[in-house]
């Protein structure tokens, strides 16, 4: 900041290296955990976390949604709630269209603010939610009631990716839905990509160990 504002000729921290750290592992919810959590929620919290699970959208993106962003089939994500203010760009500075599952569309059809326009998430006083504090409080209680090990609500995003891959959805499609590059997507979720040939690959290894001969791919 000193260099940028002309108070220093050079950046004194330029030669300082950043200490390496190990990224924590992805810890998504299982399908049964997801259903148990949603069963314990209602009102705006149910809408919020259903969309979190069904779209993989970031917290900041969900809070910034308005009804103008929904066309009955998809959500347009082009802004984010940052420090309690809406910024007209996302974390990746790119707009994306997120196709909605039937469940996501149903929860939006059932939302009482649908015909009022304006922000999608509106609190009891009629104003927009500027942060997720109230939702997170209900989230913690829902996990306790459902008997689910605590993970933060952001893990709904990881759950969308992991369950999508397990269901056989293409990585390219999921990465677009999440607003990831393919490189970042594979870096985060590669272990959830299940190949149809997994059993065959294991069978080849077992056969070679037993007979010393390679198993015919056909």
Notes on the structure:
This protein has 218 residues and is mostly helical. The protein is 42% helix and 6% strand. It contains 9 helices and 4 strands. The protein has helices at 31-39, 43-55, 59-63, 102-109, 133-146, 155-166, 171-178, 182-189, 198-211, and strands spanning 74-77, 80-82, 85-87, 96-99. The protein has a two-stranded antiparallel ribbon with strand order 1-4. The N and C termini lie far apart (63 Å). The mean pLDDT is 88.
Largest sheet: 2 strands, antiparallel
Radius of gyration: 22 Å
End-to-end distance = 63 Å
State the order of secondary-structure elements, H for helix, E for strand: HHHEEEEHHHHHH
Strand segment count: 4
Strand content: 5-15%
The shape, in one word, is globular
Uncertain parts: none
> Kindly state the mean pLDDT as a whole number?
88
- Backbone structural class: mainly alpha
Q: What's the total helix number?
A: 9
Task: Give the strand order of the largest sheet, numbering strands 1, 2, ... along the chain.
Answer: 1-4
- What is the helical fraction, as a range of percent? 40-55%
Please provide a brief summary of the model.
With 218 residues, this protein is mainly alpha-helical. It has helices at residues 31-39, 43-55, 59-63, 102-109, 133-146, 155-166, 171-178, 182-189, 198-211, and strands at 74-77, 80-82, 85-87, 96-99.
Topology:
Blueprint lengths: L30 H9 L3 H13 L3 H5 L10 E4 L2 E3 L2 E3 L8 E4 L2 H8 L23 H14 L8 H12 L4 H8 L3 H8 L8 H14 L7
Helix pairs in contact: 1-5, 2-4, 2-5, 2-6, 6-7, 7-8
List keywords for this structure.
218 residues, mainly alpha, two-stranded antiparallel ribbon, two-stranded antiparallel sheet
């Amino acid at each position: 900041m000193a260099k940028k504002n002309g108070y220093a000729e050079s950046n004194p921290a330029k030669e300082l290296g950043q200490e390496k750290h190990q990224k924590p592992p992805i810890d998504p919810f299982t399908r049964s955990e997801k259903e148990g959590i949603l069963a314990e929620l209602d009102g705006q919290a149910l809408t919020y976390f259903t969309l979190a699970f069904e779209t993989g959208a970031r917290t900041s993106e969900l809070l910034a949604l308005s009804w103008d962003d929904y066309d009955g089939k998809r959500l347009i994500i082009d802004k984010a709630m940052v420090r309690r203010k809406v910024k007209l760009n996302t974390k990746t500075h790119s707009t994306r269209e997120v196709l909605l599952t039937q469940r996501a569309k149903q929860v939006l059809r059932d939302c009482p603010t649908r015909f009022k326009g304006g922000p999608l998430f509106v609190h009891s006083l009629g104003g927009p939610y500027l942060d997720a504090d109230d939702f997170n409080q209900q989230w913690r209680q829902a996990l306790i009631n459902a008997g689910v090990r605590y993970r933060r609500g952001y893990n709904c995003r990881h759950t969308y990716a992991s369950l999508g891959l397990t269901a056989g959805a293409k990585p390219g499609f999921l990465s677009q839905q999440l607003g990831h590059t393919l490189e970042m997507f594979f870096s985060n979720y590669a272990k959830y990509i299940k190949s149809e040939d997994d059993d065959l690959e294991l069978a080849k290894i077992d056969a070679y160990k037993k007979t010393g001969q390679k198993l015919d791919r056909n």
